[in-house]
Amino acid sequence: MAGNVPAADVECAAKLLGTSRRLLSTVLQGFYQSNQATAAACGVNNLHLIRGMIGRPGAGIYQMNGQPTAQNTRETGADGDLPGLRNWENTAHIEELARLWNVDVDVIPHWAPPTHAMQIFRYAEQGSIKLLWISATNLAVSLPDLSRVRRVLAKPELFVVVQDLFLTETAELADVVLPGATWGEKTGTFTSVDRTVHISDKAVDPPGEARPDLDIFLDYARRMDFRDRDGQPLIRWTGPEEVFEAWKECSRGRPCDYTGITYAKLRGGSGVQWPCTDEQPDGTERLYTDGRFHTDPDHCETYGHDLATGAEFTEPEYRAKEPGGRAFLHTVDYQPSPDVPDDEHPMLLTTGRTVYQFHTRTKTGRAPQLDQAAPDVWVELNPADAARLGIAEGDLVGVASARGGIQARARLCGIRPGVVFLPFHYGYFDQDPHERTPRAANELTVTAWDPVSKQPLFKVAAVAVEKLADGGGVPAPAPTVGGSAPPPDAGIPPTAGGPAAQATSGKE
């Protein structure tokens, strides 16, 4: 046995993966937010490379994103890296951007690795960052160790601007709130994990004073009077299509080349896959068909990292490997999580999602059909653990870590013994501010992150579980589908939409 997985099952999986004629793998937050996340994701890549399961029909890897447009943010540099998947250590890449934007090279940050979100928050905590502008993310529910997050956001010396659709838990702590527009209220493009670019046209005007994010950022740039090296306005765009044309030029010659894509082409079909160029005007269905990868030192996005420490490899070190278009196999020895069960916190918490809610419920929590299917938090327990703790279906349970505690109704289901699960969606916006019961999963999670990707370790935390009150025979507010499905003989009514879930197109 290894981690409660029988050795025979491991051998069966190895045989399946090692002998299959086709192999398609998907990787998502279960990898990215776990201990040694990048190493685990690289392990999936290694398997495909060794077996040649890439670049041909029925074989490939989807290293997926957790939300819409996350693919775009990676391509455009909105996650802190450089646009066009450029390398901040490559002088030629920096000079290329400086020419494109007509600015001095030193204007473009490239003297150190990009500052990741957790480090930015640490600087805000220490006081070296005085203004934090938070756009379309709800840190007061989605970051780990929420008591710390609230303390930092509430600091009088930190000026907080929040730009979002609704008054989220983070917006409650802001000094200024900028109401943003949602999809359907603005025009732009989305890119899927398979590189397919889609257009989303504006259908209705935003309500009240809400404005598209682009309009807000363009207004800010005008007010700041940003200039290029010739004294001309740095930002000359006025609308989304102009921005898209500028992005196309920025992507020219890079792996994510958009230069052959136009709004007209996107409106004429069901999407276009990059790279799309004059040589490939209809886009590219499949990458790496020739077995060559973007590893050339003059072209690659990064020179790589030590998987154990996150240390950046230098350009000379990388060039010495002479990749020549070959891919790398990356491995590292196992290291335990920084937060492991002990006598005081003997169980392992993992957090995740339910199909009926999205992220911190900013939108789905306001959709009656979805919210009725999963209206409140619950905690999943194995029946054997529940029996040992005297917990029955629907009982009120306390879950505590070294950082905080929450309360949730118990759902007994098929989760592994010794492990508990909490959906991370539930914050406090729909509770009375004066009577809020701790329920956010990230009250419990640890401030730690993967050394390479910098993703927080949401999937592993040591906790203690205890019964707080009897449930009176009322089941937990958990859906009866997916991981929270109860045993067949539990007698719990199935999750069903009913009249509230019926909708029409509005054109009847």
Account of the protein in words:
With 508 residues, the chain is α/β, with parallel strands linked by helices. It is built from 14 helices and 14 strands. Strands 10-12-11-14-9-13 form a six-stranded mixed sheet. A hairpin with a 4-residue loop joins strand 11 (396-400) and strand 12 (405-412). The longest helix has 15 residues, at 37-51.
Order of helical and strand elements: HEHHEHHHEHHEEEEHHHEHEHEHEEEE
Shape descriptor: globular
Helix count, per DSSP? 14
**Average residue pLDDT:** 94
Q: What is the secondary structure topology, with strand pairs?
A:
Layout: H1 7-19, E1 23-27, H2 29-32, H3 37-51, E2 59-63, H4 70-76, H5 91-101, H6 117-126, E3 131-135, H7 139-142, H8 146-153, E4 159-164, E5 176-179, E6 188-191, E7 196-200, H9 213-224, H10 240-251, H11 263-267, E8 272-273, H12 315-320, E9 347-352, H13 368-373, E10 378-381, H14 383-389, E11 396-400, E12 405-412, E13 419-423, E14 461-469
Parallel strand pairs: 1-2, 3-4, 4-5, 9-13, 10-12
Antiparallel strand pairs: 6-7, 7-8, 9-14, 11-12, 11-14
Short description:
This protein has 508 residues and is of the alpha/beta class.
